[in-house]
Design brief:
alpha+beta; Rossmann fold; 663 residues; 6-stranded antiparallel sheet; 17 strands; Glutamine Phosphoribosylpyrophosphate, subunit 1, domain 1
Length: 663
């Protein structure tokens, strides 16, 4: 896993090698093992390497045929051995054992369609010097990030992270308020939009070509939900297990040790159990534990440790730890977040890196592709309730979904009826499954300043998403629609990004995800919904496949979503408030930045300090406001042309916000 960056001149002026070098330098945390650069008259490619496969021969940027093709690549092509054998059979000759060289030969033979043959996670750029063509591509599920900026027809730049693009003084630094409104609705901007004006991300399953001054993007893969996979639960569970076994097997390809995360839940437990099948030495596993018993899953983690006899290490995370590292979290997410959940994962990846591991396998993706989230059960109950809207018993089923939320258990029936929305009008809405969640998140917009409201005008984030739905969405069943919204938006936009790639690669750790093997995803999407959720039993087929792999206590446990301490990480009577929190939430700073209403924010702060904030809304509001303010401090207020050799006051102040960090 690595960092990639580059720029293509569209004006005839030569590329500045110093700029390309700075872009690569901004990504050094992603690839601390080696740095590479290729610059000719019109293109510059940078690479920072985390060496995992072919430690000696995988240097990048890599070329083919004396510079006819060049590639800078972030990720892994897990089926590279099979592809390499096929290409050798077709007459191709290789000089390394790396998956990077396989990409070059694949492109040489098949052109941009080569990505459809790859099983992996990638963000890559290929410079075709004969055609004067720059080709970019991102993996199907959006595991690896790729951002770009097209600057007034003068240049086209790309990078793994936005901070590399900001090394160019020509790239503007401004907050996109409509993207912020999307974050305060869906938890992340709607791809290809980012939180920064003029900077885009290449969407999952998309490729892009820059040629003759024109930029063209297209979708080479997208999720489809057609229940064509038939068979008994037993037969299908065996097929699912076989797919997961092979997905795990090829994700263990590495020339460095591979570990695994153990959360205590089903998904990571299945993943670790499958990894164990292919290891001859004790498997190294890692987990997060919390001081708060309501959030802690240590007991279940220990059950899996004992069952698999792993060499296990747990990181205990306190709310003060989260408050300490949160500025560094936002420096890496490069977008506002509404929960602190990324912070413990960054601390965990730091531990993994300290122990000498560069690769971990985890269970991400299982909930999205196999129907594990509470929102799927919630949707089913709401429709069941809607059949008898006056029933007093049916809405009480909702309390069964959230035993870990005491506040929800105490709510009276009128509140449940109003919050979960089961009117006839709501039933007809294509977003029926997500309306309560999005409405709750959207309540955070009450903290907007008048100026922000005026600038947003009549913009509506939900209407924006509605206009982007694929044509086939209308014919999908309601369960599949909910899955699509999770898999196409929340998964790449937040789970795999803010909680995934950014937190792991902050410490040069690569995450690999067997459940996101495209074969597993396509198999799962072809299942009938009843194979994913049996009555109210989530991940029915996975639980069948897991029997005998993991202890029954893991298979049968009530699902507990991963959460971390939120507001009390910053404002807690039992600990000192971090200096940056006081400054960024002060009335003068809020007024100067202009995004939020200082009076409303001050009332929220007082409420939290007084111990009166017990709801999800207050917690999300504080985290969302604080992370936005941090983003402005770290990226907008920082001078665009203040580089390592000449740092301005804004840069020095920004560094103070992350000085506690992980060091």
């Amino acid at each position: 896993m690595c960092g990639i960056a580059g720029t293509l001149s569209l004006s005839g002026h030569p590329v500045d090698p110093a700029l390309v070098s700075r872009m690569g330098g901004a990504l050094a945390h992603r690839g601390p093992d080696e740095r590479g650069l290729h610059v000719d008259a019109e293109v510059g490619l940078a690479h920072t390497r985390l060496s995992i496969i072919d430690l000696v021969g995988g240097h990048q940027p890599m070329s083919l045929d004396a510079g006819r093709l060049w590639v800078t690549f972030n990720g892994e092509i897990f089926n590279y051995i099979e592809l390499r054998d096929q290409l050798i059979g077709l007459g191709h000759r290789f000089t390394s054992r790396s998956d990077t060289e396989v990409i070059l030969h694949l492109y040489d033979r098949y052109g941009p369609d080569c990505v459809t043959m790859m099983n992996g996670q990638w963000a890559l750029a290929i410079w075709d010097s004969r055609r004067r063509r720059l080709f970019l591509s991102r993996d199907r599920m959006g595991v690896r990030p790729l951002f770009y900026a097209h600057l007034n027809g003068v240049k086209f730049s790309f990078a793994s992270e936005v901070k590399a693009l900001f090394q160019d003084a020509d790239v503007p630094r401004a907050l996109d308020l409509e993207a912020l409104d999307q974050v305060f609705t869906f938890w992340s901007p709607l791809s290809p939009r980012t939180i920064f004006t003029g900077i885009h991300e290449l969407s999952p399953g998309h490729s892009l070509i820059v040629e003759a001054g024109c930029v063209r993007t297209w979708c080479y893969w997208k999720p489809q939900y057609e229940p064509t996979k038939m068979g008994s639960s037993q037969t299908l569970s065996e097929e699912l297990q076989a797919l997961l076994v092979d997905a795990t097997r090829i994700r263990l390809r590495a020339d460095v040790p591979v570990g695994a995360y153990l959360s205590g839940g089903l998904d990571s437990s299945v993943t670790a159990a499958l990894v164990k099948r292919f290891t001859t030495t004790p498997l190294r596993t890692f987990s997060v534990a919390f001081d708060d018993a309501e959030l802690d899953e240590s007991w279940y983690q220990r059950q899996m440790r004992d069952a698999l006899l792993t060499d296990h290490e747990s990181l205990r995370c306190s709310s003060s730890d989260i408050g300490r590292v949160f500025p560094d979290v936002i420096r890496h997410t490069e977008t506002p977040v509404l929960r602190t959940a990324p912070a413990p994962l960054m601390l965990l990846s730091h531990l993994v890196s300290e122990r000498g591991y560069k690769v971990v396998l985890t269970g991400e993706g299982a909930d999205e592709v196999l129907g594990g989230y509470d929102i799927f059960k919630e949707t089913k109950i709401r429709r069941f309730w809607a059949a008898q809207p006056q029933s007093l018993r049916r809405p009480l089923l909702l309390r069964r979904l959230y035993p870990y939320m005491p506040n929800m258990q105490a709510q009276p029936l009128p509140y449940l009826r109003a919050f979960f929305k089961v009117t006839e009008r709501d039933l007809d809405d294509p977003f029926f499954s997500h309306l309560p969640r999005w409405e709750l998140t959207s309540r955070l917009k009450c903290f907007y300043s008048d100026a922000t409201r005026d600038r947003l005008g009549t913009y509506g984030a939900v209407d924006d998403l509605r206009s982007r739905l694929p044509a086939e969405y209308a014919r999908w069943d309601t369960f599949s629609r909910a899955q699509y919204l999770e898999a196409a938006h929340l998964l790449p936009g937040y789970i795999l990004s803010s909680q995934g790639d950014r937190m792991a690669m902050a410490n040069a750790v690569e995450g690999r995800f067997p459940f996101l093997d495209h074969r597993v995803v396509e198999f799962s999407n072809a299942l009938h919904p009843t194979m994913k959720m049996k009555v109210l039993t989530e991940k029915h087929l996975l639980k069948r496949a897991a029997q005998g792999l993991v202890p029954d206590v893991i298979v049968n446990r009530e699902k507990q979503p991963y959460r971390a301490p939120d507001a009390r990480s910053f404002l807690d009577s039992g600990q000192a408030t971090p200096e940056y929190v006081e400054e960024l939430l002060s009335e003068p700073r809020l007024r100067a930045d202009g995004i939020f209403d200082p009076s409303a924010v001050q009332r929220l702060v007082a409420k939290i300090r007084g111990g009166r904030a017990i709801g999800v809304k207050d917690n999300m509001a504080l985290v969302g406001i604080l992370s936005t303010q941090l983003l402005i401090e770290l990226f907008i207020r920082t001078s665009p042309d203040a580089h390592d050799s000449e740092r301005g006051t804004a840069v020095r102040r920004g560094e103070l916000f992350v000085r506690a960090g992980l060091n």
